[in-house]
Amino acid sequence: MLETRKATLFIVATPLGNPADLSPRAAATLADAAVVLAEDTRRTGMLLKACGVTARRLMSSHEHNEEGRVRQVLAWLGEGLDVALVSDAGTPLLADPGYRIVRAAREAGHPVSPVAGPSAVAAALSAAGLAPYPFSFLGFPPRSAGEARELFARFGATGATLVFFERKNRLGDTLAAALAALGDRECVLCREMTKTFEEFLPGKLSEFAGRDLELLGEVTVVVGPGALGRCDEAAARAVLAEEAAAGGKPREAARRAAMRLSGWTVKELYAMLTDREHD
């Protein structure tokens, strides 16, 4: 006797902008699912209409109602109904809501299956012309400049290329935080990917930091890895002076500086800051 297929939660990637990028499997999954959960039902409804797909039931699932949706999704799956989850664009859960739903479904023993497709992260890395791996994806950086600098410094110290999303009205300030934490690295601003006005803007962080950048929509930023090896002492002292001026105890300033510098330990920088001889 054939085993009955269990109801599945499908995580469906949707186009970044060009409707033609919706895969046949994604279209069929969205049409067949009993419920399609969308971050923005109006936006997803427009996509489905453009692609000739009719959803049986389209409901919202965003950061403000996700907790309540968890119980509903588990109930639907328990009744044998397939559920599809989409974000506004690209692959869901990458800087979008949905993690709690996926986790709850798996913990309850329901299959969770990705319907692979467009991803802003992969698209940006593939076309930016910077080292594509290893890379770290940071989602949307914190709004606080200090927290953003700390995030960039922590991941910048790994030597990986960094990828993150940012809204146009915060882009200049976030790039200024990246410059302060990482130094003047190569970067590429990727906007309107797959759309009519697609554009990749290469340059250095210093060329974009703090500027009022007139770019439409959300931007995917790729920042290249820092130079390998130990930076010179003059550069180390300059960064150390900046961190000391930012406040805090000397050891804390040394720790922050070490996260921004290549090849210098906290101990060495602390000694430099307090005018002690290196051990």
Characterise the protein shown here:
α6 packs across α7 and α9 crosses α10. With 279 residues, the protein is α/β, with parallel strands linked by helices. It has 11 helices and 10 strands. The chain is 39% helix and 17% strand. The longest helix has 13 residues. The protein has a 5-stranded parallel beta sheet. A 5-stranded mixed beta sheet has the order 6-7-10-8-9, with helices on both faces.
Provide a count of the helices: 11
Count of distinct strands: 10
Q: Which strand order does the major sheet show?
A: 3-2-4-1-5
Q: Let me know the largest β-sheet.
A: 5 strands, parallel
The CA-CA distance between the termini, in Å, is: 74 Å
Describe this structure in a few short sentences.
By secondary structure, this protein is of the alpha/beta class. It has helices spanning 24-32, 41-50, 66-78, 99-107, 120-128, 145-156, 171-182, 205-208, 233-245, 250-260, 266-273; strands spanning 9-12, 35-38, 58-60, 83-86, 112-115, 135-137, 161-167, 186-191, 199-204, 218-223.
Which key features would you list for this structure?
single chain; 279 residues; alpha/beta; 17% strand; elongated
